[in-house]
Amino acid sequence: MQTVVLAAGQGSRMGVLTDEMPKPCLPVAGRPLVSHTLDAAAEAGASRFLVVVGYGADQVRDALGDSHDGVPIEYCEQPEQRGTADAVLCARSRLADAPFVVLNGDALYDAASLASVYDHVPSVGAAVVDEPSQYGVLSLADDAGAVGSDGRAVSGDGGVAGRVLGVTEKPENPNSDLVNAGAYAFPAAAIDALGDVAESERGEFELTDLLAELCATEHVEAVPFSRWIDVGRPWELLAANEWQLGELSRRVDGDVAPGATLEGDVVVEAGATVRDGVTIEGPALVQSGATVGPNAYVRGATLLGPDVHVGHAVEIKNSVLARGTNVAHLSYVGDSVLGERVNFGAGTVVANLRHDGEPVELTVRDRRRSTGRRKFGVVVGHGTKTGIDTSIDAGVTLSPDSRTTVGESVTRDR
């Protein structure tokens, strides 16, 4: 089925990580985030991709090329990011007069559940979340089977959960934790209806308004997802990597010293080097050009991107280190996301736990938000450098090209 993939936004909730890179291109298990979306779609039944691009359009094009898993890709430009319905409208002239699927290009979908969206037209993907007020909350008919006696939705099993009555965007007091997962199967008639979507109170043209119109005239099925992540904020990028790194199978193509220890599902790509005394506990991916050690310790779901350097006696735990980043000797990085070309001076230590045991908070769009994680470290923008013996508190964000001085203790965003 023809599939529109929305990949035009900057991803402002990612903060410093998208200053130079569109969110669909952020690294997840060694590949751009959006490529995992296309993986699931190709497996679920996509026959043709129309990828809507805008911010960082050339980066998205370069990342995806002209096909994915044998499915051809065409690109449509959205000059201004004016909402999801406007994004699909930019692709309308390329759509054949046939049903179509729309997917968010910054989400991870399990392919089996997504296949059920493709099999049911019209339908919308549904998922249970802990913070439904941050999403569009779905209302289902009273006879729908999506919500159990405990008030939580059932898991996806390749079937449907019931009829959707409507969707309420980011309600203050949601009456359900079942939300729109950003996966839609529309009938052909919806192609013409795109042009009738009115501007919302938020000043955007929203696909959920088209969904609401469809719910008023047709039986729209809710398809529950057994696994889904909306990768909107830095801690969700960590969760996406945890998911996809957990799918790895052990493979060692690079240069691993005899005195190194690899435990579990560790992938060392050709061109990567693991030196003596290193221990890596999977799932972990060491990409081409990266060097680890000597005497370093890497554990948890960790991505060491291309040309990353992890020095002597460094510990990296459950983190993402993007291309060209260097963590010098005697440093610790835990539960953190480091952008490209970051340089941590020797002895730089990241805190990842609050003394009161509460979830770590992080700034998102100028507001402190709970990550929902007891352990979360820092988010570091591209090109940042720390002086030796720098310590950085849990939940701190460092802007691109930031600098710290020798022995500095960083307790606030900068």
In words, what does this structure look like?
There is one protein chain. The chain is an alpha/beta fold and 414 residues long. The protein folds into 2 domains: 2-232, Spore Coat Polysaccharide Biosynthesis Protein SpsA, Chain A; 247-410, 3 Solenoid (UDP N-Acetylglucosamine Acyltransferase, domain 1), CATH 2.160.10. Helix content is 15%, strand content 31%. The strands form 8 sheets. Strands 5-6-4-1-7-12-9-13-11-10 form a 10-stranded mixed β-sheet. The protein has an 8-stranded parallel β-sheet with strand order 15-18-21-24-27-30-35-38. The model is unreliable at 146-156 (pLDDT under 50).
Sum this structure up briefly.
The chain is α/β, with parallel strands linked by helices and 414 residues long. The chain has seven helices and 39 strands. It is globular, with a radius of gyration of 22 Å.
Give structural attributes.
414 residues; eight-stranded parallel beta sheet; alpha/beta; globular; UDP N-Acetylglucosamine Acyltransferase, domain 1; ten-stranded mixed beta sheet; 39 strands; Spore Coat Polysaccharide Biosynthesis Protein SpsA, Chain A
